[in-house]
Amino acid sequence: MRMYDLILKKRNGKHLKEEEIQWMIHEYTEGRIPDYQMSAMMMAVYFQGLNREETYHLTAAMAQSGDLLDLSEISGIKVDKHSTGGVGDKTSLALGPIAASLGVSVAKMSGRGLGHTGGTIDKLESIPGFSTELSESHFIQQVKDIGMAIVGQTKDLAPADKRLYALRDVTATVDEMSLIASSIMSKKLAAGADAIVLDVKTGNGAFMKKPADAEKLAEIMVDIGTEAGRKMTAVISNMDEPLGYAIGNALEVKEAIETLQGNGPKDFTKLVYTLGSYMLIAAQKAGNMDEAMQKIENSVKSGKAMDKFIEFVKAQGGDIQAVKDVSILPKADIIEEIPAKEDGFVGRIETEEMGICSLILGGGRETKDSSIDPSAGLILRKKVGDTVKKGDILAEIHGNDLSKVLQAKEHFYQNYIITKEKIEKKSMIQKVLF
Ligand code: URA
User: Is residue 183 among the annotated active site residues?
Assistant: First the structure.
């Protein structure tokens, strides 16, 4: 086979066969196809698209390009969860312990934050001592022992996707629906769970700004997973404002803990309980949504969910005192309150820009190698639709460098819009696909 012929075929709108896709991904992973040819292929795909079969074969080839996690030692149905990413998304921190406290085995690989989005691994590492690097056998043993583990993604998981994603990033070919779906699903398939619950975000802080695009992406991912024999659920959720109130690593850990104690923000609690219910149903721990919701409420009320979080933090070397008494978590030296300059309603929050505020403060990463300040970020006090009086505090900015705090404050004002008319808030859960 020759890469030239495959590029020509795709450029002319024809469909690639399974063996052609497998060969291409294998040769590319081995370094025998140069980036310039793969870039041309990605651009051809960008304009011609991939059909259902091609998308599935690309996903399977990328999943098989590295390690395939074998979770068969863990009994029962293993459930994974994935979010397409947003701002203030601390969902896994609360969801994992809730699901595990109700008998679901949660073996999860998560990522770090980049740019305006945060990552679960960075958030967990803001707990002193917490380790996200476990060997595969330790990871599996921990899930067997306590029902959950969250680790960083190993470099051997879907290495073809890693190379291809970096290439797409610099060739303006990231935002093609089949390529996004196959990239996400290749890692999920390689991570070995029997059931996968996807949280596909839509809104001004999401990858997919329009609900119709989020739905299409969800449909493609559900289709790929189903074809691969996994039980799939996709929840389309609102990301037209940050999730909850806290943005920033330690600040989000604190909010996740409050949620596990039953005192979390309404929107975040709704999302966590909904995703949790679908995880329970997928794991056959509940027969329907009402039963699942009831079980989750009981787990939170009785303290079981919080106990599971403490057990999980302890198992991964974290300081459980910092979880029991959140005042021990990393704290910023400067806390600057941001007052409203006029009366009105919160009309629009430019969500990505709120993530940028956290990035300016040091709570995010500009490049893959930058270090982050776990204490930095912001806490919103008001969200879309809330009434505002001049002088009300809209948010707190947490930082350790006054010039960055002032820069973030300026950025906040530019991207937090007060209107005279009350805006209807979008519902948290927009649609669910199976
Ligand atoms: N996240 C991924 O893992 N891959 C993409 O292509 C886009 C988002």
Answer: yes
| Interval 242-251: pLDDT, tens | 999 999 999 9
Mean pLDDT of 265-280: 98
Ligand 1, atom 6, lies closest to the CA of 180
- Please give the Cα distance from 218 to 67 (Å, whole number): 25
Q: What angle do CA 399, 251, 93 make, to 5 degrees?
A: 150
Work out the average pLDDT over 137-151.
Answer: 97
pTM confidence score: 0.97
User: How many angstroms separate the CA atoms of 173 and 428, rounded?
Assistant: 30
Report whether CATH 3.40.1030.10 matches the domain 79-324: yes
pLDDT of 366 higher than 90: no
* Separation between Cα atoms, residue 370 and residue 112, nearest integer Å: 11
Structure tokens given for 391: 């002088």
Q: Whose CA is nearest to atom 5 of ligand 1?
A: 180
Q: For the chain, give every domain's residue range.
A: 3-49, 79-324, 331-419
pLDDT beyond 90 at 407:
yes
Question: Residue 114: its pLDDT value, please?
Answer: 79
pLDDT for the residue numbered 369: 82
Residue 161 has pLDDT above 90, yes or no: yes
Which listed CATH number (3.90.1170.30, 3.30.230.10, 3.20.20.30, 1.10.10.10) goes with 331-419? Answer: 3.90.1170.30
Going by CA atoms, what residue is nearest to atom 1 of ligand 1? 184
Distance from residue 180's CA to the centre of ligand 1 (Å) = 5
**Do the domains 3-49 and 331-419 sit in the same CATH topology, yes or no?**
no
Q: Does domain 3-49 have CATH number 2.102.10.10?
A: no
Q: Of the residues 80, 89, 122, 161, which is catalytic?
A: 161
What is the C-alpha separation between 239 and 184, in angstroms, rounded? 19
